[in-house]
Amino acid sequence: GEDVEQSLFLSVREGDSSVINCTYTDSSSTYLYWYKQEPGAGLQLLTYIFSNMDMKQDQRLTVLLNKKDKHLSLRIADTQTGDSAIYFCAESEGNAGNMLTFGGGTRLMVKP
Amino acid sequence: DGGITQSPKYLFRKEGQNVTLSCEQNLNHDAMYWYRQDPGQGLRLIYYSQIVNDFQKGDIAEGYSVSREKKESFPLTVTSAQKNPTAFYLCASSTTSYEQFFGPGTRLTVL
Asked: How far apart are CA B68 and CA B50, in angstroms?
């Protein structure tokens, strides 16, 4: 079945850029997502990218997709302490409706 | 305001008891989902429903049951057959736009 992998932990200093990486195995992935989860809360969709795109930028967030290597990354510019959270990568296939496969999440810690 | 609500926020259960977690949405979404999240792990799909009166098992359906009698509601029952039910449970809903909206979650603890 599909598999989505992320590193467990990332620590950065306030003001630096953060890069969270994700790899996936399903070559028929159509949509790839980044969700943010703050402690004790649900998931908030940050951004998503279609598989026919290489890059998407939205304010401080930049998503890069390397479809050949099945690698997705999320770059957060000027990281703030409020960005401390768990970030989940997820993928879905367009022809399978809205079924998402999630990675294990990357805990981002931002030090002041 | 439109959104997804889950109740209760915290739930405690004795071993051998069934408990039901509530999920309601007023977003007029057709599809609804239940996920389980264990510490340090991602989300695993328990059940999903793409239309009223129909639902399918996800990856870890054993020990759980659901119903979908109304479009707005998708309750999850954790039965006594679920051997390790302590976890954080998340409900989500979506349309055909491929974005899933999540509720705030229910933390279930078995005493």
From this structure: 10
On the question of a cis peptide bond just before residue B8, with omega within 30 degrees of 0, the verdict is yes
Q: Are A42 and B94 an interchain contact pair (Cβ–Cβ within 8 Å)?
A: no
- Note which residues in 51-80 of chain A have CB less than 8 A from chain B: none
Distance from CA of A95 to the nearest CA of B (A): 11
pLDDT digits (tens, 9 = 90+) for B25-63: 999 999 999 999 998 778 999 999 999 999 999 999 999
Contact A62, A7 (CB under 8 A): no
pLDDT per position as a tens digit, A7-36: 999 999 999 999 999 999 887 778 899 999
**Chain B interface, best mutation among A3, A23, A43, by max B CB count within 10 A:** A43
How is residue B68 written in tokens?
A: 């979908």
> Which residue in B has a C-alpha nearest to residue A94's C-alpha?
B98
Cβ-contact B59, B79 below 8 angstroms: no
Separation between Cα atoms, residue A41 and residue A38, nearest integer Å: 6
Tell which residue, A99, A107, A112, has the closest CA to residue A39: A107
* Distance in Å, alpha carbon of B65 to nearest chain A alpha carbon: 19
In the block, residue with structure tokens 């703050």: A38
For strands A106-111 and A9-13, give the pairing. parallel
